[in-house]
Structure formats: structure tokens, C-alpha cells
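Hey, quick one: can you model this chain's 3D structure?
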Amino acid sequence: LTEDEDVQRMLRGSPLWKIKSRGKPRERLFRLQEDGATVCFEGGFRRARSHQSFSVMHIEGVREGHQSEGLRKYGAAFPERHCFTLVFKGKRKNLDLAARGEEDARHWVQGLAKLMGRLQAMSQPEKLDQYPLPELWGLGDSWIHGVLQRADRNKDNKMSFREVKSMLRMINIDMDDVYAYKLFKECDHSGNERLEGRELEEFCRRLLRRPELEELFGRYSGEDRVLSAEELRDFLRDQGEDASLRQARAVIRAYELNEKAKQQDLMMLDGFMMYLLSAAGDILNQEHTKVHQDMSQPLCHYFISSSHNTYLTRNQIGGTSSTEAYVRALMAGCRCVELDCWEGSDGEPVVYHGHTLTSKILFRDVIESIRDYAFKQSPYPVILSLENHCGLEQQATMARHMKAILGDMLLTQPLEGQDPHNLPSPEQLKWKVLVKGKKLPEPWHEPQGVTSLPDPEEEEEEEEEEEEEEKFQERSSRQVRGSPRGMVLEDHGVLAKDASQVAPELSAVVVYCQAVPFPGLAHALRHPRPCEMSSFSERKARKLIKEAG
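Sure thing. Here's the predicted structure for all 549 residues.
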């Protein structure tokens, strides 16, 4: 790939604007390193220049144009064709960038896509052979210097805890801060809140140790700490595999890292760990990573991967609401997302956690994000679970937005030829978005008519909010008593007077997922209605089970 025009441009480097929610956009020089897997750029650190980096291995996707919430909000000054977003795996925030010209942006978008594709196609041993950074199996100390060089922001050859956390992100380790700091302190023998040399090496080795795998390896390898092909075959058979000596030798050839050991059909601890931590050694049958079940059963025959308070990126008392939360949920395979809809200004409904300090996002923006990402990971239907607190006018606006933005993706009529008393299957509903919400009684003939309906989710929400508020008040009452923040739970947002009524326009888009109050187990069993759905908290579920005996 070094001869590729896009990659060559990346190796030469390009000035790119970093666009953030806070502060002005800043131009930094981004350059792909010679390893073809690391991108470095200058950054500000304590008023001094420092070099930061990220690995191409940690990029989940690249979006062109204003396709992130950050660029839509803060990138208007930059032409859309100059902009792109790097979406990282795990909890790392998106990186929104703008090039000086369209050509530069295109080189980076295309170049990153090629590098990501190449890395995904490589086996783990090939990655270790090509890239020194992930070589974290105790095969020599050269990897420490590579990591240190990238993570040591102020270039003093010592690692503060902040720099250690940066290093952990570089090698894709998502670790609890409390545990990481405990390990940091245990390795800081000098007591100066810095790791250097052997302290850093000890930290990394302790971080990556797998005592249970070492014990397992020792049990089969004996005193010489080397697995023969016969011993590996015995291990595989003990795991329930019908393994032959030939298959054991094939595993050694594929995963052993030491060439001398490989030539003698022997496996060292590093190769054994490499095999067990690979897809081939996974307890999960790899065939089950793809759709392998019968998808022609009625929708209610399946567990559905669902998300609660999908819009939140942090806690549900004062966290940030973001359309990016919907993107991440959908890209993780979620098929049912929640939208808490409230009256917004200028006639535009908003989504946020009512009665709290969580930030608000436009309903329209959420629907646009769902349109763009609903079916990138799966073709099976997506359910929009609406918790509606809007009045009739903004309910109608919600319906208009869903129809206009989702178009043919939105299911607005029962499937032709489908028995109305039975739910269609996921196979029949491929590429469709379903709305879960309250529905007007059928038939109704007055186009302007409205009906007040009980809220089937009100009890669940009230129970959950009571539990959250109790916890929140218990934690904060001593600190905020008498302060303005002590009144946060009294800020109920804007709840329309006619929120208990249902607008015909919104009712019309509810087809197979009608929200109703739960009538009780006995009634539900006697009168099954597959198209009706009820929500209740775990506390209520336990109570119903107990009452039913």
C-alpha cells in the first residue's frame, strides 16, 4: 500500500482542522507513520506542543461530510466535502476533522478505508509480525519504547498516570480507572507518581498477565513448559473437539510465534495464548456470529436487542443527550431504541430525559440519524419506542418528520396478505422501521378527532424515576440543600396540557406495536393480542410473577 496515492499523501502529512464543541477549531499536522498503522499529530498540552497519536486498528468507521453531531453543530464554517469524522471503537470520542481542500479530504477518507481493510484481513500473527506496537506477549522489550514514545506527551521519558491512560487507549485496553491507578501505584517503587524503565515494563507485564491461561498451559506442557503436538491434541480433545495430530500441528503452524519451535511442531506459552484468544479459540461458534436461526417466525417469538434511554451518553440525571448515542446503539446491533419526546421551542419536539438536567436534542435530528444507521449492521426491523409527552400539534410534527425523513422505510400499513391477528416475521419486515406508541381506537372517522388514552409506560417511568430520584437525593441532599441545584427534580420541562391525548397523524404510523397498559397475566393469557405491547419495571414484573404463583 505504500505505493498507493492516498497512502502516500497520508505519509507526507496534511494540515487538518480539529473541530470540537469547546474552543475554536485548531489546525494540526496529521501524518501517517511508516508502520502504516499509526497516525500522529501535534496537540496542545499544558501550553506546550506535544505529539499525540491513534492507531488505525482502533477506528471503527470513517464518515464523509457533516455526518456527525459535532460537525453538524460546529462545522458549518467548513465546506461539507472538506470534512470527515473518525469514529473509534469503545468509549473514545469521535474525531471531527476538516481539510483545506476536497482533494486532501478524499485522500484521507480513501486511504484510511484501505488501511482499515488491510488490517481487518490480516491474522493476529501477521499483525504482530508487521506492527511492533501490539506485540505485547513478552517477546522482547522493544514494544515498550514504541508505546512510551507515543504516549510520553512531554518527552521526559517518564509516564504520569494521565500518560499511562493514554497508552492504554493506544493499545485498545478499556480499563477501570480505579484498578488502573491501583496497579500504577503498586509499580511506582520510586513513589514520585511517574513510571520509568523497569517500573513501566512491570506495569505492562502485570497488565497483560493471564494467570489462568498460564496455569492451563503448565498443566498440559509439564515441567519443560513447551507443548508438543501430542499434548496440544490432548488439550483440544479435552475441550470436546475431535482433534487429530494433523490438526494440532496445523494450529501450531498458524499461531506459534517462535520460528524454531514451529519448525519442531512445538508451541510456547505465547503461541498458546495467541490461539486461545483468537476467533478460532473462542467458545462462541463462529457460525453464530452470522444469522443462523429461523427468521420466519412471528416477531413476538424472538428476544429483541433493546436500548433504554438510548439518547443518553452518560447518567440520566445530568448527562448529555446525543444523536451519536443512537448511532452507537444501532451499530452495536440494537433493534429497538427509545425516544423520550417533549415539547420543544419553535414547534420542534425534543428528546431528553424529562424532569432532569440532561441536555436536549431535536427529534428531527434523531430520526435522521436512525435513517442513516438503522440497517448498516442488520437488515432486520428497527422499532422506535416513543414515550410521548408532546401536545397534539407537536405529535403531528413528529409524524410528519418520520414520514418525510424515513420515507418508504417507515411502515404505515399492515403488510398485504398478512393475517391481522398475527405478527409478521423479521424476514417479512426487513429494512422496515416500526413505531411503538399509543393508538386511537378503531375505527375512527373524524379526521380532527382526538382521544385521551392512558399512558402504558407511565407507571414504569414513575417507578424508575422514583428509584433514581431516591438515590440521587440520598447522595446529594447534604451537599446541595438550599442551593439552586437542589431544585433540579422540580424542573419538569415543558409538558403540554394535551399530552395525554393522541393525534390521529401519530396514531396512524403505529401499526404492529401498539402500547397498552398491562391487563394482568390471567387476562393476557385468555385474550392474546400479539400486536399489543406493555412496559413495566423489573419490580412490577417480580410482583406479577409472585401474584400469579
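One thing worth noting: Residues 132-144, 444-449, 465-492 have pLDDT under 50 and may be disordered.
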